[in-house]
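lol forgot to send this yesterday, sorry. struct tokens for the thing we talked abt
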């Protein structure tokens, strides 16, 4: 069955990119591409040409979320698969492919009109990623992709079916707590590349709740947590450890209102045949306290 294999990149419309500098560069140590096109700032943190695009705009919103497939055959198969399912998929223009820096690209709307894309063969840069602040290690990407995202959807059950049937995601597990019912899904060994939740905790239908970046070294997360305190960066959740993916992480609030989770040590699913799909009654083992 046609399936995406990685979360590849994201694009955000932003009113004032300067407001993002502290989180992106002083806390996370990402690299701003000096050759970014006019009106757009491209950000990298591994061998990819860029993983994030910040687009000068009069509103803060998600511009696009890019998934990836691993071959041109998979790309063509996915295009036919989405079209068969009645999803209005279209091939992107050369200008859009150039902007995302990918060889092939298709676009379509997900549940609640989330602007999804699927690419094949993102450009890799022959220059090493240069962190904007000292780091012990890199980011955990490669075959596991960019990280993960959590979207809230008006009809979470229908959305989960979309991610399963259209994108080929597999269920990892579930967490039900307070007002939230979340389903976690994977498309590679990363425990989840997407989680789906009902609208809750101030995140509406079709809105991004957070995306997650994973460090290879826990000391990078710890040092970043120190800098969060020093630089008064607002948190939504303090340092803690998740029940399901065992990630040790904290959550910062971005100028757009959604959060960035920064963590270490996420579980991987390598043997799905013997994986038990659990329902947890809490998202945390310890910490992750809500900052009001
Ligand atoms: Fe997360």
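and heres what i got for the seq, position by position
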């Amino acid at each position: 069955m046609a399936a995406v294999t990685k979360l590849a990149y994201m694009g955000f419309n932003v009113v004032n990119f300067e407001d993002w500098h502290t989180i992106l560069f002083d806390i996370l140590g990402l690299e701003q591409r000096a050759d970014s096109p006019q009106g757009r700032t491209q950000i990298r943190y591994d061998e990819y040409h860029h993983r994030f695009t910040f687009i000068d705009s009069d509103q803060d919103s998600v511009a696009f979320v890019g998934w990836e497939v691993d071959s041109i055959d998979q790309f063509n198969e996915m295009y036919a698969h989405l079209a068969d399912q009645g999803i209005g998929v279209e091939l992107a223009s050369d200008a859009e492919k150039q902007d995302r820096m990918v060889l092939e690209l298709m676009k379509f709307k997900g549940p609640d009109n989330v602007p999804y894309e699927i690419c094949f063969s993102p450009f890799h840069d022959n220059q090493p990623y240069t962190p904007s602040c000292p780091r012990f290690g890199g980011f955990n990407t490669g075959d596991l992709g960019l990280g993960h995202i959590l979207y809230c959807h008006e009809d979470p059950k229908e959305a989960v079916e979309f991610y399963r049937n259209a994108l080929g995601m597999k269920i990892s597990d579930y967490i039900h707590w307070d007002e939230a019912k979340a389903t976690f899904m994977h498309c590679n060994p990363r425990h989840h590349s997407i989680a789906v939740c009902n609208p809750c905790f101030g995140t509406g239908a079709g809105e991004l709740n957070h995306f997650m970046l994973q460090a290879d070294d826990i000391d990078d997360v710890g040092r970043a947590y120190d800098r969060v305190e020093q630089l008064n960066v607002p948190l939504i959740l303090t340092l803690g450890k998740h029940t399901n993916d065992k990630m040790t992480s904290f959550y910062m609030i971005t100028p757009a209102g959604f959060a960035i989770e920064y963590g270490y040590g996420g579980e991987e699913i390598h043997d799905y045949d013997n994986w038990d799909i659990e329902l947890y009654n809490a998202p945390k083992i310890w910490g992750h306290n809500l900052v009001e």
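The chain has two domains: 6-122, 142-287. anyway ping me if u want another try
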